[in-house]
Amino acid sequence: MEVETPAHTQQQQVTSAAGAGVASKPLHRNPRLVLSFLLMVLGWASGPLLLRDYFLQGGNRKWLSSLLQTAGCPILVAPLLASYFSRRRCSATTPVFLMSPLLLAGSVVVGLMTGLDNLLYAFGVAYLPVSTSSILMSTQLAFTAGFALLLVRQRFTAFSVNAVLLLSVGAAMLGMNGGGDRPAGVTRVQYYSGFGMTLGAAALYGLILPVIELSQARHVARAGCAVTYTLVMEMQLVIGLAASAFSLVGMIVNNDFHVIPREAQEFGLGKAGYYLLLVGSATVYQLFSLGIIGAILYGSALLGGVIMTVLIPVTEVLAVLFFHEPFSGIKGIAVALSVWGFVSYFYGEIGAHAQQPDKPSNTNQLDV
């Protein structure tokens, strides 16, 4: 995946190519970005709640809960087939898959990284309140910012730096208050291990987002054409399959498949509720994953991290309403800092677009 140009020039070319396939519109006026945002809202607001409810109702399979975060990827087959037949009507020689071999290999690597990230997050959700784990995951924005600077030469403004600092301060406040919201039945060791694993998941996810952006940009630079939404879905399908394979291997080694029927019988919501919760979790997490990749395509990796951050208050309110989780003043301040950081970032973005003329969009599309 090397291009024989100096590193700094190479990164500039790659980043510029990534944006060539979409119109340079203000973020809030790009309909596909808005759709991606809505998918993220649905997935991120409900996914952690469903996953936490699995553990509260008697579930205890960490590898299974890791699998749920990517197992819904087969639902992408239907829209991918529809896109293929639509392209086929325009050209009989259209390829079945738009992914290049290098992009396919890169997506498999990202999928394995995602599988590990899902496992770390599953341990965090098992031992932490949803409100705490969600705020901790918001620190991925700081990690995303750092890796985006290294990998895709993300440009920073005073507003984006302010957003990262505010989120970091909020997470540090939670760390100093750690243990004050420890759920019943969770030992102190389990609580702090969940705390550490959630931060690890945030750091790894902060690396995954810029890697996805870089993969899309490299594809544009090599193929000389735009990344389309069909290609985004293909990437997500491969990432989901690789991550699911990672979790399935862990389930086999951990003997989870033999335990699942007994766990379903003893589940607090009943056997039907058990399997319904599993299917619902897999579906909403897949919608979120599709949304985050769309946000990267039509915005940037840093934008995807910022959108996740603004959803924290939604998750916090729902966790208090459904699970009656304690909501301390420290958490309130952390949420306020998260919202402040989000507003700061978007204020800077909207101001930057207002000062720049729109660029013409690239019409060299691969699919309809």
For the sheet with most strands, the description reads: none
Q: Helices and strands, in N-to-C order?
A: HHHHHHHHHHHHHHH
| Number of strand segments | 0
- Give the rounded overall mean pLDDT: 79
- Alpha carbon gap, first and last residue: 28 Å
How large a portion of the residues is in β-strands, by DSSP E?
under 5%
Supply Rg: 21 Å
Category by helix and strand content: mainly alpha
| Number of helices, where a helix is a run of at least 4 consecutive DSSP H or I residues | 15
- What are the segments in which pLDDT stays under 50 over at least 5 consecutive residues? 1-24, 357-368
Principal-axis shape equals: globular
- Helical content stands at over 70%
Could you characterize the architecture of this molecule?
The chain is mainly α. The protein has 15 helices and no strands. The protein has helices at residues 7-18, 31-56, 62-68, 77-90, 101-127, 130-137, 140-151, 158-176, 188-223, 229-253, 256-265, 270-298, 301-310, 312-323, 329-355. Helix 5 runs antiparallel to helix 9 (188-223). The longest helix is centred in the middle third of the chain and has 36 residues, at 188-223. It is globular, with a radius of gyration of 21 Å. It starts with 6 loop residues before the first helix and ends in a 13-residue tail after the last helix. Keywords: Membrane, Transmembrane, Transmembrane helix, Transport.
